[in-house]
Amino acid sequence: MPAFLSKHSSILIIDDDINLIRMLSEILKDFGRILFANSGEMGLEVARQQKPSLILLDVAMTPMDGYEVCRRLRDDEVTRNIAIIFVTANTGMDSEIACLDAGAVDFICKPLNPLVVQARVRTHLRLIHDSASLELLAQRDALTGLYNRGYFDKAIDVEFKRLQRHQLPLGIALVDIDHFKNYNDTYGHIAGDIALRAVAEALQLATKRPGELVARYGGEEFVVLLPQVDASVLAQYGQLICDAVRALQIPHQASSCAAHITISVGLSIEIPHAESSPKDCIERADRALYHAKESGRNRYHIFSDS
């Protein structure tokens, strides 16, 4: 079975005709999880809660017709990107144009032809799957597989606002591989890439709490988002990742602070407020990282105003 036809796909059928719901459910039973709603209001609620891969939406419903349901789906931030296929008995050109103008990606005509229904749904599930795969690739660093800086910048902005609303702390860790230029000069860039991947994996394995996120920030630098931590947990995390990288025991004869690859870590923590920004959080972690390097590297330091 193709990857886009799986239990991870879900199709929501919105129609006030229960017989049509049964018919479509039978036709599409092998295409993923089938959801249904027999009114526009119910369909909007199910779409918000379940976030289906695809919606099959009847045009001629009462009291809320398919065009109005489609408009509301498109106006809702939660559901606006869900693909919608209209199901309609009107095969005229004006109707087809109206369906597409309303925001649908396609339409299926009644009476239903099972092979046509399957072909159109299959096509759009494939497009949805391919689009999601491309989006995932765009979020990842090609070398390490971690999230990239662009994704991190968006993630910290969202998390900063969320924690500001709830007045909860946000921790940041900036991680730099010590003397990495010397490592590349000594062992070569292929070995450097292998070392980067190993450090990235060690950071990822050490970062396990819900909401935590590791990203490659650029070159030999990584950044970690640490929501809802206190100073004690932050210090434990700094020690944990330093130990995890030391435990790799990757030889580094060109390092002045150890015989193997080590990292320096800058940590910051604050409760976001109206006068601060995600950039301020990063800058504090960066100042802490500078202090860790000035103190001899191969260690972590937590930012303090003093």
TrEMBL record:
EC number from the UniProt entry: 2.7.7.65
Residue positions, PTM 4-aspartylphosphate: 58
InterPro entries per record: CheY-like_superfamily, Diguanylate_Cyclase, GGDEF_dom, Nucleotide_cyclase, Rev_trsase/Diguanyl_cyclase, Sig_transdc_resp-reg_receiver
Domain Response regulatory residue range list: 10-125
Entries under Gene3D superfamilies matching the protein: 3.30.70.270, 3.40.50.2300
Entry-linked SUPFAM superfamilies: CheY-like (SSF52172), Nucleotide cyclase (SSF55073)
Sorted UniProt keywords: Phosphoprotein
Catalysed reaction, written as an equation: 2 GTP = 3',3'-c-di-GMP + 2 diphosphate
Protein name listed in UniProt: diguanylate cyclase
